[in-house]
Design goal:
With 380 residues, the protein is α+β, with helices and mostly antiparallel strands. The chain has two domains: 254 residues, Zn peptidases (Aminopeptidase); 119 residues, Alpha-Beta Plaits. It has nine helices and 18 strands. The chain has a six-stranded mixed sheet with strand order 1-2-6-3-7-17, sandwiched between helices. The chain has a four-stranded antiparallel sheet with strand order 11-13-9-14, covered by helices on one side. A hairpin with a 2-residue loop joins strand 4 and strand 5. The protein is elongated and about 80 Å long. The two termini are 32 Å apart.
Length: 380
Amino acid sequence: MLHSAVELTSKLVKINSGNPINTEKRVTEFICEWLEKEDIPYQLQEVELNRNNVIARIPGKGKRAPIVLIAHCDTVPAGEEWTQDPFGGEIVGDKLFGRGSADMKSGLASALYALKEASKEPSLPGDFIVVVSVDEEGPGMKGVMKFLQSNYIDSSTMTIAPEPTNLEIVRAHRGVMWYEIKTYGKSSHGGHAERGVDANHALAEILCEIKSVVNGLPFDNKYLGKSLLSIGKIAGGTKTNVVPDQARAEIDFRIVPPLDDKTANKIIEKSVNRGLARIPGAKVEINNLGLQRPPVEVPDYAEVVKLLSKGYKRILNTEPVQGGYVAYTDAAVVSWKLNNKNAICFGPGNLEQAHTIDEWVYIEEIEKCVEIFKMLALEY
């Protein structure tokens, strides 16, 4: 017999909600039907056309601060070369396979099932809320940004994103900064290359300079390690024998404290200008892509950490591991935008499986997570 949360995970995986290929409409409609079947009230929060957050709340009668589990329902696209059906939700041995199985439809299913169990309780010590968010995988993270405008959350709300953490408590996030760098030169025949200005060469000098600077940064955070930079996309030129007059790159800069978004921007700007200076006549344009997301860290004495740890120890009879996250999540946005020191990640699955071919999650982790979330709803 499969646990109901495992069955729910499988059903969610079978619905393609790849971002940006598909909107989340089909999966949010399924979740609304599931909530209606379980007689759990909910409301829709429009983010944009055919994209709605789903908010379900079980009111509490005590004095404990509200607990919000915010789980995104979009995934990255499946891609190719899978050996398993990416939308099969199939169980092989002790694993459940499919796009989003780890990131994070298993966490979403765990939150929903815990909500169902909490709805049966005659009295909760505080509100227990599950938010199904859209567009977490997008550069603007539009779902959580819209949710921040609601009256369900503020700087004191205990917030958990059930991301794939191997059931570790993640209380620190690397900042995520995306940039577009465009270089402009002067086109000429390859036989008279001295008459042109090579935009590709300018871009290469800039990217090498940025890489060198970032690799030399001295900061090494206990939970997050060092800052990292990758060149995600690069393009330039039209033909082999033509000096290129334009080139473009997109870069991903993951930053750790004490760096912040403003410092990161200065590092990029200064590095770009140094690289550009090596190619006389070239020009450059720098643009931020998406949200400028600084690193965040929640203290180990935060109420949400203590409450989750309490339930964790009761269920698993051991102390939880605490750590940091290389990715940015809805919980990180809550912490950043609201200066909320009670926003963390905790969920089934391994981040190393996220966005990969043949993504999977351990069934046992889903079952354990459900029990911990159920206990969380009752803790005070």
